[in-house]
Amino acid sequence: MTGMTSDRSMRRRRIWSWGTAGAGVVVVPVLAALQHIGSVDGMLAVVGTVALGSVVVMTVGIAVNKPADGRPWRLVVASNAVSCVVVALWSTDIELLRTVVAPALGFVPMILTSWAALHWLRRETGSKALRVSLDALLVAFGTAMSVWVAFVTTVIERTGDPFDASLLRVLCLVVDAAVLTVLVHLCIARGRANRAYPLLTIGMACVTVAHALIAIQPAYPGLTPTTACLYPLTIGFGFMIAATLHPTMADKPPRRPRRGDNFRQRFVVVLAVLTVSVVMTVLYPPVGQTDRLVRLALFALLFCAVLIRSEIAVGQSEKEEDRARHRATHDDLTNLPNRSALYDDLAAGGPQANMGCCLHFMDLNDFKLVNDSFGHRIGDELISLVATRVVAAVGDLGVVYRYGGDEFVVASWSFDDCPCVAAKEQRTETPAADPTIADRILAAMRQPFELSVGRVFVSTSIGVSFSAPSAGPLNADDLIREADSAMYHVKATKPSGAAIFDDRLRSIALSELELTNAMREAVGRDQFELYYQPIVELHTNEVIAYEALLRWHLQGRMVSPAEFIGLAESTDLIVEIGEWVLDSACAQLARWRRQQSTLRIAVNVSGRQLRGGGLLDTVKAALERNDLPGSALWLELTETALIEDHLSAREVLRELVALGVTICIDDFGTGYSALGNFQKFPIEIVKIDKSFIDAIDRDAHKVVLTSAIEALSRALGLATVAEGVETTEQEAQVRAIGCRYAQGWYFGRPVPAAAVVGGLALATPEC
User: Fold this and answer.
1) N or C: which terminus of the chain carries fewer CB neighbours within 10 A?
2) Where is coiled-coil annotated (predicted)?
């Protein structure tokens, strides 16, 4: 309701604003009628009343709209008040007041409006104020030249005295031109965001016309009536009132002014004024020595102003180019050199050509968790703090680059502080004497980060590669690839630390490359096979499902899933392999369900499959192709896979559940184990990790933890599967705890489909 009231009030103020602008125009016929009957005093009375009314109404407008900075608007009100006094003095019979005081006082409104214009200029444009002011000065000098030639030269030619031209009125026109230039810039800069500036500009333009009609009288007597200036003056008052009543007059200036200078638009105005001044100078030849001196002085001032403006423009252009180069080679968030700068520096070979390089590639551990928990703004805050801390830790030993995301690179051309083989061979002190760059970074990262949401601990993994001075020109791609490979080796083997890309890691990388290439051909060559392990319902001791487990036969040997699943996860191969697993498992289940119609199959799904966007279609296709209901399929996911993109994951899982598919959390207790995931995602089954079951028959702590997971799951309406049950004692313990399902070697090892004992019957327990 408050919003509707506010909108109604804004609309009403806009109507009043445009109404008063029209009212100023409506007064013109009244002035024409009074002039027709020869009532000059009546015309002055009308204009004086409009001026006085403008003071009152504009004061009310300022009070209603409550601008953040009302000072410039009050200056405009004060200028109208002075104009009201000037009009009153014009109507008096006292010669001194009418001919001396009124013209002198008439210059005061221009001082006040100039003050207001400068205030707006400084507030709205900030650092651009000097350039706009110089452009306004150019317009003022050009206008001074034109007005002098058009008005003053004519008077000099007729009377021989330039002071007969009323130089004060000429000066008013010059100031008007400068003020209008500033106001036009404000109109262009704010665009449609502020309608008050265009209204005020129209009002000031009308006042300028009035001043021009006053200044033309001494030069061309009888050309226009003496009262002609009252018409545009009245219209100007109306538009000034409209500007003050318009609600946009209260708009605050943008926090970040547009980078563009709007010089092209201003240049049109400047060029037009200067062109007119040159043409006027050519058309009106000088009259006498005074005229020549004044023109020469104006030309000198104009030349100096153009020269200064040109120098500023060139300097600004150079600064913009420097800023553009800096933006191209530096990161906006941290102001560190970026990836492009890294490649440039490596291509240059460091401070001295071919002097070698030691590269540290670091990645933050669990940064995505911070982003997902607190949002990207806090993530950016953390990145900025990490950058500051790493730069401080490295000091002058190397250059820190932000490679992208949460990855940083430190390039050092000093082997004395690099934990690489070559450096260790060169050091004469003991390794503990001086910490290496990697040591410094790791030590700095152990301290918590104070974020706006609280204290956060973040570790890092660092991979190091190097190129010795004798190795020839640096190969940037090889250095970065090797350091990146070493960094991922750290991530895979320990929570944080540093590793050097040496011959051992090079051998591992080559083996992984070969394994990856072999994996790409494995699906087409039927090298993959599914093994099946039973899942038993403890109350009935019946097999209710089988988990499909992937096996790979490569060149006569069985490749362990631990060797290739991680590689497949790091590429898109896991998606293709996952589709094959899902379709093959469903096809096998369809054959088994001819004997046992309630049997189900459990299939593991990776995080990459879930994020890829095609999982739902893959599941639908596999179910339809094998004529299976959704209830026949269990999909097992780790908590890590869910948390990596929880929003899209939640939508996909909900659609899968709508098909009847059962969602299981696999290896519960080894990942993030966030209890909130039970509410975020449509989970139905929790698989308690084997690490809890291993010693459950002799470790009281494992019993407590497993019992707690079971009790929590039961309270939330979830079933539990105890994984890794291998002994009679473990089976008895999980049964006593209350687990509904169990799985492990006690009930049956993973075997090929053809080797499932008794077709589908429960395998003989193995002790």
Assistant:
1) N
2) none
CA gap 37, 364 in Å, rounded: 87
How far apart (Å, rounded) are the C-alpha atoms in residues 448 and 445?
7
Token pair belonging to 324: 């553009």
The answer to whether residues 82 and 60 touch, using CB atoms and an 8 Å cutoff, is no
User: Among the ranges 164-178, 323-337, 644-658, which has the highest mean pLDDT value?
Assistant: 323-337
* Residue spans per domain, the chain: 2-320, 339-501, 529-755
Distance CA 336, CA 327 (A): 10
- Report, as an integer, the average pLDDT of 536-555: 90
Q: In whole angstroms, what is the distance from residue 354 CA to residue 471 CA?
A: 8
pLDDT digits (tens, 9 = 90+) for 98-126: 777 777 777 788 888 888 888 887 777 66
Instruction: Give the largest CA-CA distance in the chain.
Output: 129
What percent of the chain is modeled with pLDDT above 90? 18
Q: At what angle do helices 288-329 and 339-348 cross, to 10 degrees?
A: 80
Q: pLDDT tens-digit profile of 83-92?
A: 888 878 877 7
* CA atoms of 76 and 78, how far apart (whole Å): 5
Cα–Cα distance for residue pair 110/250, rounded to 1 Å? 23
Q: What is the pLDDT of residue 428?
A: 41
Residue 519's pLDDT is 77
Give pLDDT, residue 421: 39
Distance CA 702, CA 696 (A): 5
- CA dihedral (106, 108, 114, 120) positive or negative: negative
Residue 212 in tokens: 């021009």
Amino acid 351: pLDDT? 52
Helix (H) or strand (E) run with residue 297 in it:
helix 288-329
CA angle 23, 27, 32 (to 5 degrees): 160
Higher-confidence residue of 697 and 713: namely 713
Q: What is the dihedral of CA 293, 295, 297, 300, to 10 degrees?
A: -140
Residue 538's contacts (CB-CB under 8 Å, 6 or more residues apart) are: 734, 735, 739, 740, 741, 742
* Beta carbons of 582 and 619 less than 8 angstroms apart: yes
CA distance 141 to 29: 36
Terminal Cα distance for the chain, rounded: 74
Question: Using a CB cutoff of 8 Å and minimum separation of 24, what contacts does 762-765 make?
Answer: 762/534, 762/536, 762/541, 762/542, 762/543, 763/534, 765/728, 765/731
Residue 589 has a CB neighbour count (10 Å cut-off) of: 24
Task: Categorise residue 364: left if φ over 0, alpha if ψ from -120 to 50, beta otherwise.
Answer: beta
Query: Given this chain, do its domains 339-501 and 529-755 carry the same CATH topology?
Result: no
Tokens of 540: 């009935």
Please enumerate in sequence order all residues whose Cβ is within 8 A of that of 604, keeping only pairs 6 or more positions apart, or say none: 547, 548, 549, 550, 581, 636, 637, 666
Q: What whole-number distance in Å separates Cα of residue 335 and Cα of residue 362? A: 18
Which pLDDT score, from 0 to 100, does residue 759 have? 47
Q: CATH topology for 339-501?
A: Alpha-Beta Plaits (3.30.70)
Give the per-residue pLDDT at 595. Answer: 87
| The domain defined by 529-755 carries CATH number 3.20.20.450 | yes
Specify the residue for token string 């801390």: 389
- Which range has the worst mean pLDDT, 263-272, 395-404, 489-498, 623-632? 263-272
Pairing of strands 557-559, 542-554: antiparallel
- The residue type of 453 is V
Residue 424: pLDDT above 50?
Answer: no
Phi, psi of 241 (to 5 degrees): -60, -45
pLDDT tens readout for residues 353-373: 556 788 899 999 878 778 877
Structure token digits, residue 433: 């004497």
Place of tokens 């030993």: 397
The count of other CB atoms within 10 Å of the CB of residue 536 is 26
Query: How is residue 751 written in tokens?
Result: 């075997």
In angstroms, rounded to a whole number, what is the distance separating the alpha carbons of residues 213 and 193?
33
pLDDT at residue 763 is higher than 50: no
